């Protein structure tokens, strides 16, 4: 079996030395689309922040392509190929769509290369192409979210981590968002996403983990989780 691209081992992490994540272990294989699902406050964002180097483990470790990144700074982790798109559509609201995207290329300085990536991305996000000169804050909520993801892809990450992309979107937009994430994964980018929208996330994921009060309480293929009585009762209202 191939090696995991990301492996989280017995992770404890929190704020000011007080853990809110208690022994989380998970893995993502190259090419996979993995979802961590759970209610508000379960610890999804804290887990993502720790993988991306914005928080640090109190205990346990995080391996990316076999390298222990637990003590790495966020910019080093980004450089290794992990791109984190945080919750809440953090874009540069006063800059154009195109400028927002170019800034996402970070370490890439070649204008030709940046242009090439832009054009490639606009195929996945045609709506951004139509609006490339528009100021970001004038986009709709769904378009801003798409822009945040597209910007996260400009650094050509090996692993794209998405935090609550569906939050605040209307149902038709959520569906579009999930289709877009599927399309990104099909182009070869490994995706780890966290979602409160359990059903929607599991419908596009290969595998999933259920997180509750800082612990993984269930893991399996997306199908197994969708069929699980516990998941259906707790998250799908069935
Ligand atoms: N900056 C912070 N300082 C202290 N506690 C926090 C902070 N951010 C989140 N928490 C706490 O950590 C727990 C997990 O939160 P979070 O990871 O944001 O959950 P989720 O993303 O699943 O909603 C919650 O109990 C939350 O109150
Ligand atoms: Mg969160």
TrEMBL record:
It comes from the Bacteria. GO terms for biological process: L-amino acid transport. One of its GO terms (molecular function) is branched-chain amino acid transmembrane transporter activity. The keyword Nucleotide-binding applies. Keywords: Amino-acid transport, ATP-binding, Nucleotide-binding, Transport. Residues 6-238 form the ABC transporter domain. InterPro entries: AAA+_ATPase, ABC_transporter-like_ATP-bd, ABC_transporter-like_CS, BCAA_Transport_ATP-bd_LivF, P-loop_NTPase. Belongs to the ABC transporter superfamily. This is Amino acid/amide ABC transporter ATP-binding protein 2, HAAT family. It comes from Desulfomonile tiedjei (strain ATCC 49306 / DSM 6799 / DCB-1).
């Amino acid at each position: 079996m191939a090696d995991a691209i990301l492996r989280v081992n017995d992770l404890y992490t929190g704020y000011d030395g007080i853990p809110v994540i208690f022994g989380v272990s998970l893995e993502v294989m190259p090419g996979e689309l993995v979802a961590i699902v759970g209610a508000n406050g379960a610890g999804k964002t804290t887990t993502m922040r720790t993988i991306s180097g914005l928080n640090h483990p109190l205990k346990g470790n995080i391996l990316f392509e076999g390298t222990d990144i637990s003590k790495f700074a966020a910019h080093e982790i980004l450089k290794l190929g992990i791109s984190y798109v945080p919750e809440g559509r953090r874009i540069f609201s006063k800059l154009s769509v195109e400028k927002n995207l170019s800034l996402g290329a970070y370490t890439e300085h070649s204008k030709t290369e940046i242009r090439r990536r832009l054009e490639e991305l606009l195929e996945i996000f045609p709506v951004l192409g139509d609006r490339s000169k528009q100021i970001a804050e004038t986009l709709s909520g769904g378009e801003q979210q798409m822009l945040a993801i597209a910007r996260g892809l400009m650094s050509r990450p090996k692993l794209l981590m998405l935090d609550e992309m569906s939050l605040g979107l209307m149902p038709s937009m959520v569906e579009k968002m999930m289709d877009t994430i599927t399309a990104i994964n099909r182009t070869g980018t490994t995706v780890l996403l966290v979602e409160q929208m359990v059903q929607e996330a599991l419908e596009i994921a290969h595998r999933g983990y259920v997180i509750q009060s800082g612990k993984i309480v269930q893991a399996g293929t997306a199908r197994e989780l969708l069929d699980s009585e516990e998941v259906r009762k707790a998250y799908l209202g069935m």
